[in-house]
Amino acid sequence: MALQSALVSLGTPAPDFALPDLSGDTVGLSDFDDHSVLVVVFACNHCPYVKHIEHALGSVADACDDVAFVAICSNDITSYPEDDMEHLRAQAQRANWSFPYLIDETQHVARAFEAVCTPDLFVYGPDRQLAYRGAFDGSTPGNDVSVDGSLLRAAIERILGGCSAPEPHRPSMGCGIKWKVDAT
Q1: Is the pLDDT of residue 166 over 90?
Q2: Residues 7, 40, 138: CA angle, nearest 5 degrees
Q3: CB–CB of 118/44 below 8 Å?
Q4: Backbone phi, psi, residue 106, to 5°
Q5: Whole-number mean pLDDT of the chain?
Q6: What is the three-state SS of 77-102?
Q7: For the chain, which terminus, N or C, has the lower number of CB atoms within 10 Å?
Q8: Percent of the chain with pLDDT over 90
Q9: How far apart are CA 112 and CA 57, in angstroms?
Q10: Percent of the chain, pLDDT > 70?
C-alpha cells in the first residue's frame, strides 16, 4: 500500500547523522557543509516508486551544482533482504548514482527526519533548515506523467536563488518504510 510523506514543518533543522555508506565509510551531516543545498532522499532497492524515479534522480543530482545529494536506506533487511548492502550497490550502479548511499540499520535517522515512505525527499538550504519536503515530480508508476524531477528541480532552483519553494508542497508517495518490529 502506498503512503504519502509527512509534511514536516519548514524551517526544521536537519537532524544530525553519521551512517555507513556502501563502502563502510561513515558519512555525516557535516560532510556536506561545503554545499549550499542538501537533498536527503530516503530510498531502497525493492520499492517500485523508487525504481520509477531512480535514473532521473541520478540525472538531477548530476546536473545540480552546489547541491549535495545523499540517499538513506532505513528498511528492515531481515524482512526485505533485497534492500541489503549488496542490492543497494547494484541499485546505485544501475541508476548511475554518484552520491553517497547510506545504511540506517537502527532506523533512528529515519525517525529523526520523520521519513515515512520511499522515496521521501527533504531539501535543506544553506542554514540546514528544511526548505522543501515533497515529491520528485508528478509521476508515479503507471501514470503518464513525465519522470523529470520537475518539482524537486524547481524547489532547488528557488532555494539556490534565496527564495522559498512555494507551498503547498506535493507530498512524496511510495512504499512505507519497513520498520523493524522492535525498533523504537
Answers
A1: no
A2: 60
A3: yes
A4: -80, -15
A5: 96
A6: CCCCHHHCHHHHHHHHHHCCCCCCEE
A7: N
A8: 94
A9: 23
A10: 98
* d(C-alpha 165, C-alpha 154), whole Å: 8
SS3 150: helix
H or E element at residue 51: helix 48-63
Residue type, 72: I
C-alpha closest to that of 157 among 66, 90, 44: 66
**Grid cell at residue 116:** 515515512
Per-residue pLDDT of 28-69, as tens digits, reads: 999 999 999 999 999 999 999 999 999 999 999 999 989 999
Q: Residue 137, Cβ neighbours under 10 Å: how many?
A: 20
| CATH 3.40.30.10, applies to 2-8+32-176 | yes
Q: Are 74 and 108 in contact (CB under 8 A)?
A: no
DSSP 30: G
At 47, the amino acid letter reads C
Contact between 17 and 184 under an 8 Å Cβ cutoff? The reply is no
Q: Quick one: cell of 44?
A: 531502497
Closest CA relative to residue 159, chosen from 128, 120, 136: 128
Q: Would you call 63 helix, strand, or coil by DSSP?
A: helix
Q: Residue 97 in contact with residue 3, Cβ under 8 Å?
A: no
pTM for this structure?
A: 0.96
Give the closest residue to 43 by CA, choosing from 78, 12, 5, 17. 5
- Residues β-bridged to residue 19: 27
